Amino acid sequence: MGLSVSLAYLAYTAGAIVCAIAAFWIASRGDESRSDRTPAIIALALTANWCFAAASFQPGRPIVELTEIARNLAWLFVLFRLFANDGRDETLRLVRPTVLALCFVEALHFLLLLIDMSNPMTTEVSTLVFETATLFRIMVAVGALVLVHNLYVGAATPSRRLLRWNAAALTGLWAFDLNFYTIAYILGSPSPELTALRGLAAGMLAIPFTMGFNRAAAGLEFRPSRAVTFRSLSLLVIGAYLLLMIGLARWLDLLSGDLARLVQVGLVIAAGALALVWLPSDQLRGWLRVTAIKHLFKHRYDYRNEWIRFTQTIGRTGFDESSLSERTIKALADITDSPAGLLLMPDEDGAFQLAANWRWQGLEVPAPAAPGTLAAVLERTELIVDVDEVRSGIDHYGERGFVPEWLKEESRAWAVVPLLHFDRIVGLGVLSRPLVARKLDWEDFDLLSVVGRQLASYLAEQAGQAALLEAGRFDEFNRRMAFVMHDIKNLSSQMSLLLRNAEKHADKPEFRKDMLVTLRNSADKLNTLLARLARYGPREGTARQPVDLALAARAVVERCGRAHPVNMVRDESAVVLCDPEALEQALVHLVQNAIDASDSNSPVAMEVYSDGISGKLQIIDNGKGMSPQFLRSGLFKPFVSSKEGGFGIGAFEAREMIRSMGGRLDVESREGIGTRFTVTIPLQAADRLIGKAPDTQTCENV
């Protein structure tokens, strides 16, 4: 025992001398430009004072404890000032909350010391105070090591040479304390050997710390590691939670009997339930991330990691992966931690339709989802719409009047991001509010704008590839039809020639009778086939005629109603100018599609009416319906069909025929409910008013 006391005395005395010399050297020769110079002198002086007190008094005496508290607070302040050597107050703001928390924990030793002095003869209280103080010192050591790690790792490469001696000394100081107090907690009391070596260790670590002040600190820049910071902060939260539970359990040891056991069991159950429900939650992780970014970093985003994640999301391929539209909105939502999102894309009329819904449950998006006028404003201004500002009445460029009402009423809607490709909008991304609510700022706007342009290029490239594929299919189809028509024309010419020769040699009654009948029937059939095939080409020069849509609809009902119930529910007269044959063919296509989508006992309804300007014909079924994705990208695409074995040209041909007559074809559909096709053609009188009607047309109505 006497040897340990003598060793401790010599070690603490040597430590006090070395620390005092180090403080004097920094004061006289240290780099005067460093902001941590004065705190370092004070910390070394207080360390020398602690060593002097430990050498003069027995361990555990109040004077020794007080000097150790002062020493630890001084070193925490030195660590804090090391972050400020880049000359900017912003860096201090990043680490201030963590340093203040560690100082608060260290300052709690004053309270523990008072409790111990108030109960000098109580063994249970002394033991509990010792264990609590030891846990607090472990917590401070761990927190200080985390700060030192972020100080060194976050520094620029040239700055690390200036920090290496200081960081190494502080790491050794707190690592020794961490091991010392961990062993003390396990053994129930401080180790005499380690206690004797603490003073010597402090003196040895003061030497490299002093060497660090022999180098200039110009250009020092702090760049904290986000990944390490998040993990460290998570560990600190979990560690604080566990220490709190352990501390409460130890304090409950003061109780006795059944009450103590009941309270301890209840505490364990409550702590476990809280850990299972609260710690793994997305909201807690989101709050932790937002808090760390707000207080520890100068920029909200780690642009390198964001770009890597963005590339991985967009670049995923395979049969089991989502479509590009869904990956597009997911990549956009991941940036702002939005839990859901929508992608709206323009149709051929310029209005926006729903193209993808990523995890936005329970939202009914109307058709159209947004007007084309909104796109015109966003193309001109490149504005990212803050939906909360729109709700509050803020209007920057007149966009507020074009934001649809359903979007304003949806409380989860947070931002609308335009996807611009060569100053043309190819889509709108609608982001939901993050789990941890916050306001959009300049950094969000900048990053979302850049990512929006990149996503727009991907969508435009996909659209271009689809157009090339469609053109290739059309080219193949036309080539095949050209060969067929060429062969049929040759055969028709040959048969016509034979027919003429047979008419010249009519002296043989049997030949004339048989050949004329056979050849005439064959020629008629071939000419009829040619006429049908020619319908798939352009119908140039076909004169439009007055046609009553009600009569045309009744003719289709009579024709198609034989195989499936087709009901005429409304038949107001509406005279339009069109090609009767093309109109009938288009209506037959649409009615047949409705029949194919319906059950055998589910009737198809047709109605005709006029709105004073146009004649409207609606075809309604209660069939399977179509998804928004198929409506936007599949229904009117040639060679794309939802029916097994279908060619996929019926709806496309019907729309093109109706457009050639100056009309339009609209469709509304919902899966599991049904579909409504609406044919709209200007009335004859309205057509003449706008100068499109021919001067004279005398034809009968269909």
Structural class: alpha+beta
Q: Give start-end ranges of low-pLDDT stretches.
A: 216-222, 276-280, 293-298, 692-702
Oligomer: single chain
Mean pLDDT: 77
Number of strands: 12
Helicity range of the residues?
55-70%
The CATH homology group name of the largest domain: Rhodopsin 7-helix transmembrane proteins
First-to-last CA distance: 121 Å
- CATH class bucket of the largest domain: Mainly Alpha
Biggest β-sheet description: 5 strands, antiparallel
Going by CATH, the architecture of the largest domain would be Up-down Bundle
Shape: rod-shaped
Q: Which labels suit this protein?
A:
702 residues; alpha+beta; Rhopdopsin 7-helix transmembrane proteins; Beta-Lactamase; 4 domains; five-stranded mixed beta sheet; 22 helices; kinase; His_kinase_dom
Task: Briefly characterize the structure.
This protein is an alpha+beta fold and 702 residues long.
Report on the structure:
The chain is of the alpha+beta class. The protein folds into four domains: 2-224, Rhopdopsin 7-helix transmembrane proteins (Up-down Bundle); 225-298, no CATH class; 303-467, GAF domain (Beta-Lactamase), CATH 3.30.450.40; 545-689, Histidine kinase-like ATPase, C-terminal domain (Heat Shock Protein 90). The protein is 61% helix and 11% strand. It is built from 22 helices and twelve strands. It has helices at residues 2-29, 37-56, 62-82, 89-118, 123-153, 157-187, 192-211, 226-251, 257-278, 282-296, 303-315, 324-335, 372-381, 387-391, 405-409, 442-504, 509-534, 549-560, 580-597, 628-633, 650-660, 684-689, and strands at residues 341-346, 352-358, 385-386, 413-421, 424-432, 545-548, 566-571, 575-578, 604-610, 614-621, 664-670, 674-682. A five-stranded antiparallel beta sheet has the order 2-1-5-4-3, sandwiched between helices. A hairpin with a 3-residue loop joins strand 9 (604-610) and strand 10. Helix 3 (62-82) runs antiparallel to helix 4 (89-118), helix 12 (324-335) packs antiparallel against helix 16 (442-504) and helix 19 (580-597) packs antiparallel against helix 21. The longest helix has 63 residues, at 442-504. It is rod-shaped, with a radius of gyration of 42 Å. The model is unreliable at 216-222, 276-280, 293-298 and 692-702 (pLDDT under 50).
